[in-house]
Design a protein that fits this description.
The complex is a heterodimer of chains A (about 260) and B (about 270). Chain A is built from 9 helices and 10 strands. Chain A has about 260 residues and is an alpha/beta fold. In chain A, strand 4 and strand 5 form a beta hairpin. In chain A, helix 4 crosses helix 5. The chains are: A alpha/beta (about 260), B mainly alpha (about 270). Chains A and B meet through helix 2 and helix 3 of A and helix 5 of B.
């Protein structure tokens, strides 16, 4: 069962399956019984306040943190029961965009992009590396930055290069941690477009953590509202906010009205 | 309910002791992981060479200056004491023993603790708090192997080489001082300086340097790799790396000199 890809009753393949997930930090119970499935080709948005446990959730999915309880399966594999070699193999199929991009600041843009390829694909030719770097830089529209250092790039450019770095390994699943945080509205708009382009062009399935409702509306096929450690609401954008619950309404009102 | 609030002193002592032993346990595991990862492929040869360059070449000017000055100053300070007994001709011999057996390994280790240890703590600490280490991990790259193993190997290889270089420069400084005052020739100086130095002394110096190099690498990397609390944590990692390395270097020096050297230096 562990290595067989599960299929949801909608008929779409399930790429991430989470059941009964709990995580606490001392007395702070951030995740209290999370269940959800991500289907192939789908963009799921996880909305929630700062400190609500959104980033913890995707770090658990990527195997960067261990849950207290619960099962996390990615592409049919139980992430927290894999040995080191199996986890490395699985991670080759997962892309992760960090909130502050996490580009290696001692390397140029090009070296940042080459780094995962050189270390994960033995005996790869220089031509193939050049081709892959060109392809992903073109995909994010920053071909001219390849010799620049990350510190010379703007916040939006760093996000794009972060996306390019994960695309170079052609991941099946992408985890975005606050992709538009700290960006101006126009740059956020471009990043939202890029997320949609990536989904179409590379046929990826994504979990997008955000508290930016524009990003949620523009990029999400389905929204999950994380409140008090549980998914309080889920559905499409209108379904999630069609409620009298003040905790959900307050979120909407702040983003679009006040 | 906080039952410790009535006994703060006892609580803090107990907490301090707990943290000390947890720290010892964590660093033991960190060292164990080093030997395991260092012995298993893939090996990051290129990165080891790059780190050797950073540790070795970039520390060269500081070590040259410090060792040269130490050689001159130590010779100058020692001269009056020997002159009182009419034994200034023993100066090269005494300087040879002092520099090769004691000063060169210690000076090199302390300089590398300040320059390399703090740099490792700050560099890896900064990578940790900006999630670059996590980024490596999710890119299916083992950050321990790439960042820690390479740097610890580099310090372990380079500190002994720098120690020999430092001894050479220290003796050069001493020779210039002795030559300037006593017109001692280079041949006589070398003969006298190495009169009481044999393979056992050189081996002891190299073994201690290897241990000091390993200590510098592993503590710097450990403090960097376990950094928390953002940019403040990076500063703390750099600072505590230097303090702990210096403390351990002196402890190791004392243990080897007092307990191990007598076993084979008869």
């Amino acid at each position: 069962m562990n290595n067989i890809k599960e299929t949801h009753n909608h008929g779409k393949e399930v790429v991430i399956s989470i059941k009964g997930l709990y995580k606490s930090f001392d007395d702070n119970h951030v995740l209290q019984g999370i269940d959800f499935d991500l289907h192939k080709g789908e963009n799921v948005i996880v909305l929630g306040r700062s400190g609500s446990g959104k980033s913890v959730l995707i770090k658990i999915i990527a195997g960067l943190m261990k849950p207290d309880k619960g099962i996390v399966k990615v592409l049919g594999k139980d992430v927290h029961k894999l040995n080191k070699k199996e986890l490395i193999e699985l991670r080759l199929k997962i892309g992760f965009l960090f909130q502050h991009s996490a580009l290696y600041d001692s390397m140029t843009v090009r070296e940042n992009l080459e780094f995962p390829m050189r270390r994960n694909i033995r005996d790869i030719s220089e031509d193939k590396i050049d081709e892959a770097v060109k392809d992903v830089l073109d995909a994010v529209g920053l071909a001219e930055t390849s010799d620049q250092m990350p510190s010379e790039l703007s916040g939006g450019q760093q996000k794009r290069i972060g996306i390019a770095r994960m695309l170079i390994m052609k991941p099946e699943v992408i985890l975005y941690d606050e992709p538009t945080a700290g960006l101006d509205p126009l740059t956020s708009y471009e990043i939202n477009d890029l997320i949609n382009e990536v989904q179409k062009r590379y046929k990826t399935s994504s979990v997008i953590i955000t508290h930016d409702l524009t990003c949620a509306k523009k990029t999400g096929d389905r929204l999950l509202m994380l409140i008090d450690g549980k998914f309080l609401r889920q559905g499409d954008f209108d379904e999630v906010f069609d409620t009298d619950d003040e905790r959900v309404k307050g979120f909407y009102d702040y983003n679009f009205i006040e | 309910m906080d039952t410790t609030s009535n006994q703060p002193a006892k609580y803090f002592i107990s907490k301090g002791i707990d943290e000390f032993f947890i720290g010892i346990y964590d660093i033991s595991r960190f060292i164990g992981q080093f030997f395991k990862e260092a012995a298993t492929p893939p090996f990051e040869y290129q990165e080891v060479v790059k780190q050797c360059y950073k540790v070795g070449y970039k520390s060269l000017s500081l070590i040259t200056l410090t060792a040269f000055i130490t050689g001159i100053v130590f010779t100058d300070h020692s001269r009056p004491a020997l002159a009182d007994f009419g034994a200034t001709s023993w100066l090269p011999s005494m300087i040879g023993i002092a520099i090769i057996k004691a000063l060169a390994p210690l000076i090199t280790a302390l300089i590398c603790a300040g320059k390399v240890g703090s740099q490792l703590g700050a560099e890896l600490g900064s990578m940790k708090v900006t999630e670059q280490i996590d980024a490596m991990e999710v890119s299916a790259i083992d950050p321990y192997k790439y960042l820690v193993v390479t740097r610890v190997l580099a310090t372990t290889f380079m500190v002994p080489i720098l120690t020999l270089y430092s001894a050479f420069i220290g003796l050069l400084g001493s020779f210039l001082d002795v030559h300037g005052k006593d017109q001692t020739s280079l041949t006589v100086f070398i003969h006298d300086a190495f009169f009481k130095i044999g393979y056992a002394e050189i081996t002891s110096t190299l073994v201690r340097s290897i241990l000091f190099g390993f200590t510098i690498g592993i503590i710097g990397c450990y403090k960097g790799f376990t950094t928390t609390e953002g940019t403040e944590g990076v500063g703390k990692a750099a600072n505590s790396s230097v303090v702990i390395i210096m403390f351990l270097v002196f402890i190791e020096e004392m243990v080897i000199v007092k307990f191990f050297n007598p076993l084979y230096m008869q």
